TrEMBL record:
Protein name per its UniProtKB record: RarD protein
Pfam family, one: EamA
Keyword Transmembrane: yes
Family from the record: Belongs to the EamA transporter family.
Domain of life: Bacteria
Membrane topology, record value: Multi-pass membrane protein
Organism per entry: Oceanobacillus limi
Transmembrane regions listed in the UniProt entry: 7-25, 31-50, 62-81, 93-111, 123-145, 151-168, 180-197, 203-229, 241-260, 266-286
Domain EamA: 6-134, 150-281
Cross-referenced InterPro entries: EamA_dom (IPR000620), EmrE-like (IPR037185)
Amino acid sequence: MRAKATFILVMLIFGSIGLFVKNIDLSSSEIALFRGAIGSVFLIGASFFVKQKFNLKTTKRNIVMLILSGTALGFNWIFLFEAYQYTTISNATLSYYFAPVFVMVLAPFLLKETWTWKKGLSIVIALIGLFLVVQPDTGASSIAFNHPVGISYGLLAAAFYAGVILINKFIKGLSDFETTVMQLSIASIVLLPYVGITENMNYAGLGMQSLVLIVILGIIHTGVAYLMYFSAMKKLKGQTIGVFSYIDPISAVIMAAIILQESMSVLQIIGGICILGSTLLSEVMGKKDEDKVVA
């Protein structure tokens, strides 16, 4: 029960990321850089307290995949944070949750997984959901946002996150903790020259609010949240983790509605249900199929 409560809390923390990012007066690439840097330093420090060792030999064997996945993670954040700037948190979150759909499409080609009619049905439902979510907004929010651009950024973020998921399948012999620390560190290393080229990196005028929020994003939303996530994962079944993961997008939509007064049309709500429902359906059905094979 305690593990479930911990996992739910982690999902609520992840669900609140958009609220913080929207109020940080930095570019998306700078936010991604600082999140990765602060998060990786925190987790490296925490590794001494939780007695987590790093296997350098195994890390070297996986270095190419770690560089690819770390780079994909960094740009995934950039595009997600851009999505928050151009559209509502609800739209950004729902388009970002298209990542499992990309994985379903690519897995048969990259991982040699078999196609099933259930996966095909899930993809069709998700596409219908996306079509409903991108319907033009006729409300007041349409003036403040550029929804098509924001949703496009959300889908780009989803594509990069799908890349992280698929690349992780090829990483062997490393714990989730080791993999995450390496990915965060590599994301920071890769993003540093990118930010140096694209931004002026002058933070003398950065307000206290932005400074506090970026520290919270790095420590709480990344360092602490990942530590709690790994701790809870060890005590929960895979299907429980899969189902509980949907607390993240649902809470993000609810918090945005309550705190930012963001609204969604009935069609967009139905679209969101279709997107989240399709990935949940695929996950639950996939687990059932695995159980049948094991039996």
